[in-house]
Amino acid sequence: MRFQDFGIDPRLISSIKHLGFEQATEVQEAAIPLILGGCDIMATSQTGSGKTIAYGLPILQRMLKQRRFEHRAVRAVILAPTRELAIQVHANMKHLGMSLDYQIQLIIGRESFQHQEKLLRKNPEVLIATPGRLLDHIREKSISLEHLEFLVLDEADRMLDMGFRDDVSAISNSAPNVKRQTMLFSATLEHVDVANICNQVLRAPERIEINRSNDQHEKIEQRLFFSDNLTHKEEQLVHLAKTEDYRQLLIFTATKLDTERLAKLLVDNGINATSIHGDMLQNQRKRTLEDFRRGRVEVLVATDVAARGLDIRTLSHVINFDLPINPEDFIHRTGRTGRAGATGIAISLVSPKDWTSFGKIQSYLKVKLPCIMLEGFEAKFKGLKPKPAKKRLPESNKGRPTKLARKGDKNAPKHKQNTAPKQDKKQAMRDSMASAVDGGFAPMKRKPRAEIIDDGHEED
Fold this sequence. Notes:
Blueprint: H1 10-18, H2 26-36, E1 41-44, H3 51-65, E2 76-79, H4 83-96, E3 104-107, H5 113-120, E4 126-129, H6 131-139, E5 150-153, H7 156-161, H8 165-173, E6 181-185, H9 192-201, E7 206-209, E8 220-226, H10 230-243, E9 248-252, H11 256-268, E10 273-276, H12 282-293, E11 299-302, E12 315-320, H13 327-334, E13 344-350, H14 355-365, E14 371-372, H15 425-438
Parallel strand pairs: 1-6, 1-7, 2-4, 2-5, 3-4, 5-6, 8-13, 8-14, 9-11, 9-12, 10-11, 12-13
Helix pairs in contact: 2-3, 3-4, 6-8, 8-9
């Protein structure tokens, strides 16, 4: 379906064409008419399916058609879980609204609070923000959401996993406009906290579920190779970075230190690479991402900080140097390629320490992923066999193991000592005789002994 078929303003159609889009994706086709109709929505779709346009385009269209409730009020707030995603959404919204006379501003952490206060004094119509920093401005009264018309929660599941539930609730409560329209986008709608926040912030929402988060992306080819250890992985990585036919390559690793170490390793081998991680200053991260977007850098080594929100069409390959612990992060990592209908290749290096994560990913995707040898860099490791379940020893009526412990065996189960208080023997005998009488049995009388005479003779 073409975007002009939705009755979108020609200025917005021009912006869409400038971005290179003409046909709506599935989630856009489903969401745009509902948002134009004023419905609250809760939606899930695969990474790279065009969610920003799915809510951004109809919001701007509605803003054109209806008057601002209050002259200086913020009209739309879009919340994103990470700075990187917020920056990406801001860039997309600026492109969509480039033909409109709207102020579209970005408010995120690790940037000057005073400078952001100056931006808010310009009375922006659209605000893209991370929850924590926006709530700081609300508390400092640098912004009011009293007349807010549109609220978007982008990647709500990630937002809640990062501990922003109370912040999201507080932001929603600070926007009491009864005519407010709220849109929630999430990788999954089965998330318990997502269901709770939906009940709290949405009113009679329409549900959109195009593809579940654990559905495999049809246009992303998965390649998995066995690795023996860290040194072997590094050799494989350098080989892949030199031989794969990619336009741009994104490499994911587990730790911040590994990003810098691997980037240096690649540079030492003549590869145009750099790194990004959470400890870098915000300006450094923005500059690094901009260099990667513009093609000044061909290979970027990153932690999961770049997994969500990075949208680069020329990104053809992703490599998981380490597999993530959370299977959903695997989806979002590999989803950085194969975006907007393009094809992509996702490569993962699987060593013994990745085997548990590999199993979780297969269970989550509900599919068997073939793991093979990398030619010329074959591994000795071929996977781990599942451990047999431990057999429980049968227990006796007294709760003690029937297996006899050998003398000196430290691993033998210790018998529980009888901790009951000792009973007086005479009292025990009296109780025994009483119970016998109660049961109809007479106690046996002891035969009297012969009496001993002091003179040493027995009595006749």
